[in-house]
Write a structure and sequence with these properties.
Elements lengths: L16 H5 L7 H15 L9 H23 L1 H19 L10 H8 L4 H13 L9 H24 L10 H5 L22 H13 L3 H14 L4 H13 L3 H14 L4 H20 L5 H11 L8
Helix pairs in contact: 2-3, 4-7, 4-9, 5-7, 6-7, 9-10, 10-11, 11-12, 11-13, 12-13, 13-14
Length: 312
């Protein structure tokens, strides 16, 4: 369906799943699930409170074409982690041009000017906008646009704190530079800061995500291997590769890449999440599997990740 929003994050990505569901970026899965169930009840034909048949049909279309896909994307750990990585990359690039943005909505303007706890204020603003997001079918797109612009403002503010460039030396004057001999070694005056280039591995991660959504984790492994040829020490790629191996019940390979990810970056969130999932598998196998009982080992792993047991 055609999406009539060209505002906020919709200028940079196809869909802002967080804005569609009305949850803050980085929300826990439990919060996302509760919000999805609430929105689904509002839009489902059996429980929708719309007065006319046409409004109910529109509500059902929004549910099937926007809300359900957003939930499916954010409910999968791998896709949620990859999506967070993409949003982080967008924030890092745009933070360098923070002053060039002109936000239309009051919420985004308030967050940009905020001197308080940005995280807390952002979550409060999201909660305020999401309160009546799906109260009326006619205003849903408007509310999603407002939330998406708020999300964009949040990414810029949060990233600008750590990525804003600082100039340690003043620019050399033209007259002074003329007095220097060509053989004189000196540091060139800082020029206009260039935006950081997008990591070349992002394209590999995006392709891998399409395979992950289809459950084709073998292809995800191939994509991440190719990505690591470009950036061998990329912790995010090692972490995602570890997750893909976990989905294939290859805990040993998963452990290798998760350990490597944490070795290069002990604070990488994706690698830390992968380590927690690996620990769950190991703990489940230790508690539920008897020595030599391979069938129970297979069952405990796939149960953790929502897979189906193979029929004997």
């Amino acid at each position: 369906m055609a999406f009539p929003i060209q505002q906020g994050l919709f200028q940079y990505i196809d869909l802002d799943h967080y804005a569609i569901l009305g949850v803050p970026i980085g929300a826990e899965l439990k919060e996302i699930r509760l919000r999805y169930l609430n929105v689904a009840r509002r839009l489902h034909p059996d429980t929708c409170k719309a007065l006319t048949k046409a409004e109910k049909e529109r509500a059902n279309t929004l549910l099937s074409k926007l809300v359900n896909p957003a939930w499916e994307h954010l409910s999968r750990e791998g896709s949620r982690l990859e999506y967070s990585l993409i949003l982080s990359q967008i924030g890092q690039r745009l933070a360098h041009n923070e002053q060039q943005f002109s936000f239309k909505t009051k919420a985004a303007q308030q967050l940009i000017k905020s001197q308080k706890n940005v995280e807390l204020e952002y979550k409060n603003l999201v909660q305020s906008l999401a309160g009546d997001q799906y109260a009326s079918v006619d205003s849903i797109y408007q509310k999603i646009a407002q939330l998406s612009e708020l999300n964009l403002a949040y990414l810029i503010v949060s990233q600008s704190k750590s990525s804003r460039p600082t100039l340690s030396n003043p620019p050399l004057s033209l007259e002074y530079s003329r007095t220097l001999n060509t053989d004189t070694i000196f540091e060139q005056p800082p020029q206009e800061e260039e935006l950081p280039k997008e990591s070349p591995v992002i394209s590999y991660i995006r392709r891998a995500q399409s395979y992950a959504d289809k459950g084709n984790y073998a292809q995800v492994v191939l994509e991440m291997r190719d990505a690591l040829k470009l950036e061998p020490n990329n912790s995010t790629c090692h972490g995602l590769l570890g997750l893909a191996y976990l989905r294939q019940n290859q805990a040993s390979m998963a452990k290798i890449h998760i350990t490597t990810a944490l070795k290069h970056d002990p604070n990488n969130e994706i690698a830390l999440d992968a380590k927690r999932e690996l620990d769950k598998v190991i703990t489940a196998n230790d508690q539920q599997t008897k020595p030599g009982d391979s069938s129970k080992q297979s069952k405990s792993f796939w149960t953790l990740f929502g897979g189906r047991d193979k029929k004997k």
